[in-house]
Write a structure and sequence with these properties.
Elements: H1 2-42, H2 47-83, H3 86-92, H4 102-145, E1 158-165, E2 172-179, E3 186-199, E4 204-217, E5 225-236, H5 257-269, H6 275-302, H7 311-338, H8 344-367, H9 373-395
Antiparallel strand pairs: 1-2, 2-3, 3-4, 4-5
Helix pairs in contact: 1-2, 1-4, 2-4, 2-6, 2-7, 4-6, 5-6, 6-7, 6-8, 7-8
């Protein structure tokens, strides 16, 4: 009996989980896909590199969408069992709610393990690989994408004009640059020659100009300056909108857990600020843990559906509401912790500490068939709004069903 029950629930859970994972990931990727499409269409970046960059971006989204899909799958499964009276049939056959939880816990632990692996190992490597690829794109664009006698604005805050590019060596002759990266001071750089230098270690692309002049103009005309130079290096950043600016120091998002712990120890010994690294350490544990929290919380919330109601719409609405509250609490806690208003540990773990006891409490109440008054009031309010909306539509000419 139990094996048949577990197979039945497992099929429901994993099917909903797969659909939710694909759906949530696609929604989050939509914004990035638009940016990547703009790179392919307008910037001339090869499709193979666009797909490679998309591949490197996936772990950062999966870390978020796996917990979301876990909550959605549990909610939809138990919503359907409740709305189709199957949960009532199980209880009549002597199957308690606690006997139905092992498949949920199995899915939650699998989601927890997958998110932990992504957070600890895949995500740092993918972040660094994406930065390296962006460097390669910037380097390639600087070498190949710039055309002669054309104003080029593919680099952030710069407009380049090159009279001639020497074949094979890619030396630039008669270079004109408008630099507007500093809003308070516009610079115009003119040089008879220049070349591109790439530094794979620091992920930088530098334009080296020779024997030129910098014309600086501030807010007032009296602030005009001219500076002659023999050698001038100008850092280039490809204008991708994907935050490709490299730093000489490794970003906390690119660090493994070992590197983060070492960085915290070093910065603490130097009495320097180590909050960004400490936040990343807590994120690597708190984000996967929410899969377990959502697995417990989804069971009693899913059982709030009444027989005959559309289970999918109610389950989706509950999941969106819980996710919204959870991530708002996470953002608020992180922000308060960064500003030193509350302890960092409290800010990072408060959402889990709030929803875990709440989920256990609601699960016990659901197993004992004891109503939770706030949820009952909320369901009544939703029913009242639905009836009012239905009556409004009927009064405007919609034919009511018989």
């Amino acid at each position: 009996m139990k094996i048949t029950l577990y197979r039945y629930l497992g099929k429901e859970l994993f099917t909903s989980f797969a659909l939710g994972l694909v759906g949530f990931t696609f929604i989050l990727l939509t914004g990035r896909i638009l940016q990547l499409t703009e790179l392919f269409v307008n910037k001339g970046i090869p499709l193979s590199q666009i797909l490679e960059l998309l591949y490197y971006l996936l772990p950062s989204f999966l870390v978020l969408t796996i917990p979301m899909a876990t909550l959605l799958s549990v909610l939809l499964t138990f919503n359907r069992l409740s709305s189709d009276n199957e949960f009532t049939a199980f209880k009549a056959s002597g199957v308690s709610l606690y006997q139905m939880t092992p498949p949920v816990f199995f899915l939650a632990f699998l989601a927890y393990a997958a998110t932990s692996l992504l957070s600890f190992y895949a995500l740092p490597k993918a972040n660094y690989a994406s930065r390296s690829l962006l460097y390669e794109l910037a380097s390639t664009k600087a070498h190949v994408g710039v055309r002669e006698r054309v104003f080029n604005d593919d680099f952030e805050g710069l407009v380049l004009y090159i009279e001639r590019i020497v074949p094979k060596t890619f030396q630039w002759e008669h270079v004109f640059i408008s630099d507007s990266r500093n809003p308070s001071e516009t610079q115009t750089i003119i040089a008879p020659e220049g070349e591109i230098l790439s530094n794979p270690q620091q992920l930088t692309v530098t334009l080296r100009l020779r024997h030129g002049a910098i014309h600086k103009l501030g807010w007032h005309a009296a602030g005009y300056q001219k500076v002659d130079f023999n050698l001038y290096d100008l850092r280039l950043f490809l204008n991708t909108g994907l935050k490709s600016k490299p730093n000489e120091e490794k970003h906390p998002a690119d660090m493994s857990i070992t590197e983060l712990i070492d960085a915290v120890k070093t910065l603490r010994a130097q009495k320097a600020d180590f909050k960004p690294q400490w936040i990343k350490i807590h994120e690597k544990f708190s984000i996967p843990f929410v899969c377990l929290v959502f697995g417990i919380l989804g069971i009693p919330l899913g059982l709030q559906s009444q027989p005959g109601r559309p289970a999918k719409s109610i389950g989706f609405a509950w999941s969106i509401g819980v996710l919204l509250v959870y991530y708002l609490m996470t953002s608020a806690g992180t922000s308060l912790a960064e500003r030193g208003i509350i302890l960092l540990e409290v800010g990072m773990w408060f959402p889990n500490a709030f929803f875990l006891p709440l989920g256990i409490y609601l699960l016990v109440k659901a197993a004992n068939e004891s109503p939770v008054l706030p949820i009952v009031w909320l369901n009544k309010g939703i029913d009242k709004l639905r009836r009012k909306w239905s009556d409004t539509l009927d009064s405007h000419g919609r034919v009511s069903p018989p």
